[in-house]
Amino acid sequence: MEDPKPPCQIRITESGSRTKNGCRLLRASLLVSAALVVSLFSLSSRSYGNFLATMMPVEVSYPAWVEHLCPRYYRRASQSTAGLLRLTWKPLEDDAIFFMETSCAKSLGSRQACVVESAAYHQPHQPIRLLMTAPYINHSHPLLQVVLGLDNVHASWLDLDQVYQEEPLLTWHRERQWMLNEARSPTFVSDSSRIELLKRFGGTFLDLDMITLRSLPSFSNWVGWHALVQINNAAMNFVKGHPSLQMVASSIPKVFDPKSCCRIGPYLLYDVMHELCPDVTNRPNITETDAKCGNVTIFARIRLYPFSPYTELDYIFQKKKGKALNFFTSQNDPYFLHLYSSHTTKIRVPLGNLTLLGEAAMRNCPKVYNAIVKHGLEL
Fold it and tell me: Nearest 5°: phi and psi at 121?
């Protein structure tokens, strides 16, 4: 009995005749399909420094917290990641200066970009880390291009599952306590993450509205007064595992109040320092002088937060007057210009040195400032 022919060896044409080219045609078709798949896969991503830029839509999956923290980003990003830069989690270096963007934005605003460059400008030999909750960012944005092009600046994903790995914040995070007030969730995540990262890795945390004006203190363990019962958490430096941060982290789940903007921020820092050093925190005019609580320096308010958000914001954003006229020649030598973004996001200022903010940008973030001018952006 004759052996049957394999199916690919015979093909029936439309006229009903047989051909022995069927196998060749099938093999050729498979080879073309395979080549196309390989080509598409190779086009789907492209290296960008230490990162991966997605060049066409791909299937993506995110941890559950992304949908909870950033529902609008989640819906848009799940549709397409074409042309975006994929970030990955990376632990902090011990001496890093780090910033966090917790609203899931895909790029930075003008002032935020200026803030990052100002830190890199005054600390050129120190690693600067930009941590963003958006897994994919728009690296083609002109300001983000400037920031990521700085030698000592690197962007990473702020993966909350990697941040909250230790109790008690591990359970606090798994139960999504930070989303009990959706409008304030980014603030709660920011306030708690900065404490946890400083506790685990040490270094310097700066808010994205703190323009650095000069080299930072050469010693570790410092914070700054903001008001009588507030030690601000917008600028902090601690060594890894500092006992004060252990106390703060342990207290967060206990005192957390979703109706309060600052309960796990400036108020909690003050409570911990008051518990450790009541003789220091009870002194008269304490916010006007530097103080020591153990090995922690608490700077006078004017050193880190030279303008009050309640009465002096005009000095920063309006044409120079009063204190703003001699701000850069002052003997107080503040380390930062705090812009209080929660109060001032919608305020726009003219470019140039007509305002204190404009002059601060020209002096401390020249590359970002030039990009703002070149692309017709606002400060």
Answer: -65, -40
